[in-house]
Design brief:
This protein is an alpha/beta fold. The protein folds into 2 domains: 5-177, Rossmann fold (3-Layer(aba) Sandwich), CATH 3.40.50.150; 184-281, Orthogonal Bundle (Helicase, Ruva Protein, domain 3), CATH 1.10.8. The protein contains 10 helices and 9 strands. The protein has helices at residues 15-25, 42-50, 61-71, 106-115, 128-134, 140-145, 187-198, 208-217, 228-241, 264-281, and strands spanning 11-12, 32-36, 53-58, 77-81, 96-100, 121-127, 149-157, 162-163, 170-177. Strands 4-3-2-5-6-9-7 form a 7-stranded mixed β-sheet, with helices on both faces. A two-stranded antiparallel sheet has the order 1-8. Helix 4 (106-115) links the parallel strand 5 and strand 6 (121-127). Helix 8 crosses helix 9 (228-241) and helix 9 (228-241) runs parallel beside helix 10 (264-281). Belongs to the class I-like SAM-binding methyltransferase superfamily. rRNA adenine N(6)-methyltransferase family.
């Protein structure tokens, strides 16, 4: 088979490593699993031995035909020949997602499974450096993902585990969905602030004096060690500090609140209401 870079993957073939991965997935016989990238069907076969149903999506035509022949008698497996980025996950069904994903599509795929699926648990094999970037709240990706999922490393997978052997190590990570920190109605507002924050476009958000006040409200002493909760607090405090007019006075109790997962929705509600009030009152 000619190597097609667009669809290229590094395959896991070691029985020992595959079994270690399966053990980490903690699957039950009642589980429905969506697999990203059937590949040669090695992991698919093991998923189907435990799960109730496995739907595996593969884009590469050669691999799809190969795995279709290999798995044609397995009644627990449904193969779909499609680009995962175009695939629509079900809305009501309970399921998990598992995937050994191409390195060059990691960002697109992780956004797809987090923001366009309702999977309770998501298990992905990714490049180790990419995993670290998902935890970095100084990056847009990290700040967006943290609102929906918690992320943890389950296994480290050295390059020697794969064929062809990549130049980097990989890890198996688990993304566990939690109650969203940012409800849909506030999402555009949140992403706007995140885009300005990570690009350090502070002047578009507040003055130098307001910046220092925001740091004080969020109890931030060092931006290099700022936490996710503190970033949320800073972004919310911005509107309070940049109000500068009487229309903001009804929201001034905000200054006594501190961000926790329990009151983020309340604080964002204050932020949204304040922003609408500012637009109505106009510049002062």
């Amino acid at each position: 088979m000619n190597k097609n870079i667009k669809y290229s993957q590094n395959f896991l073939t070691s029985e020992k490593v595959l079994n270690q991965i399966i053990k980490q997935l903690n699957l039950k016989e009642t589980d429905t699993v969506y697999e990203i990238g059937t590949g040669k069907g090695h992991l698919t076969t093991k998923l189907a031995k435990i799960s109730k149903q496995v739907t595996s999506i593969e884009l590469d035509s050669h691999l799809f035909n190969l795995s279709s022949e290999k798995l044609k008698l397995n009644i627990r497996v449904t193969l779909i020949h499609q680009d995962i980025l175009q695939f629509q996950f079900p809305n009501k069904q309970r399921y998990k997602i598992v995937g050994n994903i191409p390195y060059h599509l990691s960002t697109q795929i992780i956004k797809k499974v987090v923001f366009e699926s309702h999977a309770s648990d998501i298990y992905l094999i990714v490049e180790e450096g990419f995993y670290k970037r998902t935890l970095d709240i100084h990056r847009t990706l990290g700040l967006l993902l943290h609102t929906q999922v918690s992320i943890q490393q389950l296994l480290k997978l050295p390059a020697e585990c794969f064929h062809p052997k990549p130049k980097v190590n990989s890890v198996l990570i688990k993304l566990t969905r939690h109650t969203t920190d940012v409800p849909d109605k506030y999402w555009k507002l949140y992403t706007y602030f995140v885009s300005k924050w990570v690009n350090r476009e502070y002047r578009q958000l507040f003055t130098k004096n307001q910046f220092h006040q925001a740091m004080k409200h969020a109890k931030v002493n060092n931006l290099s060690t700022v936490t996710y909760e503190q970033v949320l607090s800073i972004l919310i405090v911005i509107y309070y500090l940049t109000g500068g007019n009487n229309s903001m006075s009804r929201f001034c109790k905000f200054g006594k609140l501190h961000v926790t997962k329990g009151n983020v929705d309340k604080l964002l509600g204050i932020l949204l209401t304040a922003s609408k009030e500012l637009k109505r009152s106009g510049p002062h």
